[in-house]
Amino acid sequence: MRPFRQIARGLRSLLRAERADHDVSDELEHFIEEAAREYEARGLSRTDALRAARQAVGSVTAAREEVRSSGWEHSIDTLIGDVRHTLRWLRSRPAFTISATATLALGIGASAAVFSAINPILLRPLPFPNADRIVTVADFTGNGGSMPVTLGSYVELKSRSRSFDVLAAADGWQPSLLASGNPERLVAQRVTPNYFEVFAAIPLTGRLFRADEGRAGDACVVIVAESFVERRFAGDRAMVGRSLNLNGNPCMVVGVMPRTFANVLAPTADLWTPMEPRATADFNSSAWGHHYTIVGRIGAHASIESASRELLAIGKAPIPQFARPPWASLRQGMLVRGVRDEIAGPVKPALFAIIGAVFVLLAIACVNVTNLLLARGVQRRHEISMRAALGASGGRLFRQLITESLVLAAGGGILGVVVAELALRGLLAASPPGLPRVDAIHLDGSVLLFAMVVTTLVGLAMGALPAMNVAFGRQDSTLQRGTRTVAGGRGVMRSTLVIIEVALALVLLVNAGLLLRTVRSILAVPPGFDSAHVITLQIAESGHAFDSSSAQLTFLQQALDAVRRVPGVKSAAFTSQLPLSGDVDGYGFEAQSVAGSEGGAMGSAMRYSVSQDYIATMGIPLRAGRLFDVNDRPNGARSVVISATMAKNLFGSKNPIGERMRFGPEMSDPNQWHTVVGVVGDVKQFTLVADAPDAFYVVNGQWSWVDRVHTLVVRTSGDPTALVPQLKQAVWSVSDQVPIQRIRTMDSFIAASAGQRTFALTVIKTFAIAALLLAAVGLYGVIAGGVIERFREIGIRTALGAAPTRIAGEVVGRALSLTAIGVGVGLGVAAVTTRWLSSMLYGVSRVDPITYVAVVALLALTAGVAAWSPARRAVSVDPTVALRVE
Amino acid sequence: MAKESDPTTDVIQGTLELLILKTLSLEPLHGFGVARRIEQISRGVFKVNPGSLLTALQRLERAGAVDIEWRESPNARRAKYYSLTRIGRRQLDAETDEWKRRSGAVARLLATQE
Questions:
Q1: Distance between CA atoms of residues A459 and A456, nearest Å
Q2: Strand boundaries in A751-822, DSSP class E
Q3: Which of A7, A25, A31 to probe by mutation at the B interface, max B CB count within 10 Å?
Q4: Which of B31, B52, B61 lies closest to A27 in CB terms?
Q5: Distance CA A199, CA A127 (A)
Q6: Pick from A10, A24, A58: CB nearest B49
Q7: The predicted structure's pLDDT at residue A474
Q8: For residue A485, is pLDDT > 60?
Q9: Contacts with A742 (C-beta within 8 Å, 6 or more apart), sequence order
């Protein structure tokens, strides 16, 4: 009726309990006084009157209790009492409290950390209005995979499709910012002017692109990112209107995008420049290459499915207005995907593996603490029986015990948040590059909420069993029994829990083992080159100083000469793309003598425009013919070296040396044939796991253009990273206008090739070790508890002459048999869980016997270690002491 | 306390609040006064246990049916005086009607039984 009054009065008596009690006592005193006065009036003496009055009113304490227990605040009062009691109890048992809290903190912290990592990637909506309507559109490759789209296809789809409110295209761009003394290559995007409309993004200052901007010959304009302004211009607020020198061209800043604009397709982009959505009829132009990303907003009347159907229909019905080359036929339709799937897709398997692992760890932590509580329960039976005898109901006792486990869980939860913060840092440090939305990963309100929910569930889960056991178990007889009695039923329960722990630990260990073997076998894959002592530096020839290809070639030659003079350099070379670095640059090819290869019909191959020494510097083995030499000059006879697989696919058993080939843009020109002079080993370009693609090597200057970006590859005699400063100096001594970046050893590229799995392995391995320790602790607890419970029995048997080895054997045997059952159960569970992991496995079967044998042996060893100390204690039981106990 | 007292003198379950409200509708009283008044008017049929009385008064106060005021009692001692509020008066009317309806029904039922 009056909720406010209810709450206010309740709070008052809660916060000022003494005062409230005093009020009631005061009123009761008044009662007695008035009653006594009446008795006196009837003629009784003062003393008799008071006695009679007290008798009539009854117990003041009982009345006070009655009043006190009537309000809603009473249940809170009880709760506070229970919590206080629990804290006192926990304080008096520091070993138990510390081990239980630490275990829970580990479990809760690890799961909160994992949750905070997956939340922005898999769960939290992307920070755009109607983010679920934002999709990417990709082309299909021949074998069902997806690949970027050509600008020509974009123009056709944009014109013909009706499913999208906005459809934009973007292309990667790495302009060099030429500022005096500090050249830097930027990460940028060339976008159609409507790009920002897809995300409904609004600039911080300035404006978006106008629909007619970006045409050839227009003055260059850019929109820059707030983070870029902070990094390069100390957060200058007057960026709009400034001119940046990009590749030697002045570019006017027209807008600044705020930090809150999550550019999910290129999260690190520093700036954007407009491009005209137009494709020339020349299929050899860049607009017809597969390197554009299409992103769009689906209209309210359409869905991802209907848009896919529409694009398929368009693909199957070409119209003359939009000519298509064979590599962008669109006949299979297009792949339309929600942008979240697009960015989360590649890391999903690893994330799911980690999520599974963390819940197993949490479960083990729970089981462990449940076990501790059960053990406590046995020791506390006396106390509980006493309280039951004094009138505490089963429900009341249950409530108190649940409160205890919740308090324990809360402690674990609070510590867990600290653990989560640390674990998250570790997680991010171990994360592979390319983990999406990494900047959005942090502990926030939703993570704390998650931790709270987990904590509560954990508290209830681990408390329910022991609390029921203690509160509703048979109390009557325990007071009569001594304190140290055999707890048969609970023994079974605790053994069961240990079996569960062992089983869960086995599951984690098996998965970690399989991943370990996977990473090993990936890293054992020969990459096709010799990665030892090789450092690579990416160098961009930007600015108008390099506008002529002769200037470029001169720079490349002079830079190589300078680098070779650095002491410790064995050899050095340039290449237009580097294996395993993420570079992808492929072209169609045709061989003059091979029918059916005309017009690039046999697919595409990776192009490496290199300096003469590249193949030798990388240690790529020569299979036939010769490598490039000094005679392969820019204006000399055109030669080409091809990969072994390409030679076999194209020429079969025929000797490929001397065959004539041409590639990509050269196919429109009748006089551009290259002669095959050599065949070299296959090189892994994408990842160690993927097949090595067809590849061809041409000498710089013998290709249709000289690339603006090269990677300098240097083989050294000692530690290659130590030479980096001298190498940079050597390059800059030729021109200080070239930005140098992506400075990495070839070994690090190889390691990164197993990155995702290494990440999952690191995390799951950590969890598995923690699980093993927890299982060992659990085993130890049960075995040691068993020895204590059987103290008397062991004493008697020793007195009767039982051999110590036999007693020790029994103790260890118990540990081993519990472990054996756990292993049996765990193998069953692992048979299921490893199936989920199978997409991540490489070069190892999910029933790999070596892994399973090793894990079982490890668990057996752990069981032996856990049983060691209890076994020794059992052997050293002194019969005289044992018999005197109780 | 309740267990010890003579069952015939217990207030009928659920009617204590009605009796308190009725008593207070005449004049503001302190706790003992309420108890004494109920006993007097009922000619000793109802005996009120102080614990139940104070609990009921606390409940009524929280529901806004009565207000509390500290006053000097006739014996020169400060005591809590309870007085009826508008809400209390409405509750009294409602409960009185309800009680009459019920007791009338019981009376009719008993009459037919005879």
A1: 5
A2: none
A3: A31
A4: B31
A5: 9
A6: A58
A7: 52
A8: no
A9: A536, A537, A538, A581, A711
Dist. CA A220–CA A243, nearest whole Å? 10
β-strand pairing of B78-84 with B29-30: antiparallel
- The answer, yes or no, to whether residue B62 has pLDDT greater than 60, is yes
Which residues in chain A are contacts of B79 at CB distance < 8 A?
27, 30
Residue A814 in 3-state DSSP?
A: helix
**Cβ <8 Å between B31 and A57:** no
A670 token code pair: 């009748």
Which domains does chain B possess? 7-113 (1.10.10.10)
| Residues in Cβ contact with A738 at an 8 Å cutoff, skipping those fewer than 6 apart | A176, A183, A539, A540, A541, A542, A555, A731, A732
Residues of B in Cβ contact (< 8 Å) with A64: 51
Answer left, alpha or beta for residue A634, where phi above 0 means left and psi between -120 and 50 means alpha: alpha
Q: Does the distance separating the beta carbons of A37 and B62 come in below 8 Å?
A: no
A600/A575: higher pLDDT: A575
User: Within 10 Å of residue A364's Cβ, how many Cβ atoms?
Assistant: 29
- Residue A790's SS3 state is coil
Calculate how close chain B gets to A58, using CA atoms only, in Å: 6
Lowest mean pLDDT among A424-433, A520-529, A746-755, B22-31: A424-433
Q: Is A57 on the interface with B (CB under 8 A)?
A: yes
- Can you list the alpha helix ranges (DSSP code H) found in B13-85? 16-26, 31-41, 50-63
d(CA A582, CA A433): 11
Question: Which 26-45 residues of chain B touch chain A by CB within 8 A?
Answer: 30-33, 35-36
Confidence of residue B13 (pLDDT cuts 50, 70, 90): low
What is the pTM assigned to this prediction?
A: 0.68
Cβ atoms of residues A412 and A107 within 8 Å: yes
Considering only residues A402 and A123, tell me which one the structure prediction assigns the higher pLDDT.
A402
Q: Which site among B34, B38, B62, B73 would you substitute to test the A interface, given the most A Cβ atoms closer than 10 Å to its Cβ?
A: B62
Q: Which residues 8-27 of A have a C-beta within 8 angstroms of B?
A: 9-10, 23-24, 27
Q: Identify the residue whose tokens are 């829990």.
A: A497
Instruction: Tell if the CB–CB gap between B50 and A71 is shorter than 8 Å.
Output: no
Query: What is the Cα–Cα distance from A466 to A405, expressed in whole angstroms?
Result: 9
CB atoms within 10 A of CB B97: 10
Segments making up each domain of chain A, as ranges: 3-71, 145-331, 347-523+755-884, 544-736
Q: What is the pLDDT averaged over residues A91-112? A: 84
User: How distant is the Cα of A5 from the closest Cα of chain B, in angstroms?
Assistant: 6
- Whether the CB-CB separation of A239 and A184 falls below 8 Å is answered with no
Q: Which of B16, B55, B87 to mutate to test the interface with A (most CBs of A within 10 A)?
A: B55
Q: Which residue of B has its CA nearest to A7?
A: B62
Q: b/e per residue, A156-181, with b = 16+ CB within 10 A?
A: bbbebbebbebbbbbbebbbbbbeee
Interface pTM, i.e. ipTM: 0.76
Cβ A226 vs Cβ A215: under 8 Å: no
Give CA separation, A371 vs A105, A182, A414, A454, in Å: 16, 62, 21, 19
Position of tokens 């199957």? A316
Contacting residues of B for A31, CB less than 8 Å apart: 31-32, 35, 50
Residue A173 clears pLDDT 90, i.e. is over it: no
Q: Spell out the SS3 assignment of A452-519.
A: HHHHHHHHHHHHHHHHHHHHHCCCCCCCCCCCCCCCHHHHHHHHHHHHHHHHHHHHHHHHHHHHHHHH
The two tokens of residue A638 are 């055109």
Mean pLDDT, rounded, for A614-626: 94
Q: How far is CA A299 from CA A167, A168, A210, A262, in A?
A: 10, 14, 22, 21
A-chain CB neighbours of B54 within 8 Å are: 24, 27-28, 63, 66-67
